[in-house]
Design brief:
Blueprint (H helix, E strand, L loop, with lengths): L4 E5 L8 H16 L3 E4 L5 H12 L4 E6 H4 L10 E5 L2 H10 L4 E3 L4 H15 L7 E4 L6 H12 L12 E3 L2 H10 L15
Parallel strand pairs: 1-2, 1-5, 2-3, 3-4, 5-6, 6-7
Helix pairs in contact: 1-2
Protein name: Cytokinin riboside 5'-monophosphate phosphoribohydrolase
Catalytic activity: AMP + H2O = D-ribose 5-phosphate + adenine
EC number: 3.2.2.n1
Length: 195
């Protein structure tokens, strides 16, 4: 699959460290420089706003998708290439998935985690075959990756499905991984039951 768009999940807050904001800006610029469309949640605050603004300033196309009930709360970005307003969060995520060739999570909170894990789960279920990756700034996602490894060792995730999400310390490694990704989820996500 040719990479034409990247969906980014990230915080509606800037985070406690200035490097989070700087990385969001650098990522937005990089998406634009690669000639890719940035797809994201449509807000103009926090890391969401920073990644969109940076992509726009670098001449990129930015598609924001936001549910109506969050349009005012998250302060919808009014300078995007395109803003789609949906009726629900479920529609928002479906639209984001439909318009994206890859999914990247920057640091964020509950919403970022939820969106991230839905895309990993959909990949496991073969509902899509797109890469899912984390920009692992300062080890932000180390505990999450450790939890995934724990779930594997405890028999809740198949070892073969471990590559469905990858973590990368910098943008160059992450973009390279997206470009070379090959989907290879196990046909079954649960081990056979001994009978």
């Amino acid at each position: 699959m040719e990479l034409e768009s990247i969906c980014v999940f990230c915080g509606a807050n800037p985070g406690a460290r200035p490097q989070y904001l700087a990385a969001a800006q650098a990522f937005g610029r990089r998406v634009a420089e690669e000639g890719l469309t940035l797809v994201y949640g449509g807000g103009n605050i926090g890391l969401m706003g920073a990644v969109a603004d940076a992509a726009l300033e670098a001449g990129g196309r930015v598609l924001g998708i936001i549910p109506g009930f969050l349009k005012d709360k998250e302060v919808a970005h009014d300078g995007l290439s395109e803003l789609v307003v949906t009726e629900s969060m479920h529609q928002r995520k479906a639209q984001m998935a439909a318009h994206s060739d890859a999914f990247v999570a920057l640091p964020g909170g509950f919403g970022t985690f939820e969106e991230l894990f839905e895309m990993i789960t959909w990949s496991q279920l073969h509902l899509h075959q797109k890469p899912v990756a984390l920009l692992n700034l300062n080890g932000f996602y180390d505990p999450l990756m450790a939890q995934i490894d724990r779930a594997i060792s405890e028999g809740f995730i198949r070892e073969e499905n471990r590559p469905l999400v990858t973590a990368h310390p910098d943008i160059d490694d992450l973009v390279a991984a997206l470009k070379t990704y090959r989907h290879h989820a196990a046909d079954r996500w649960l081990p056979a039951v001994a009978g």
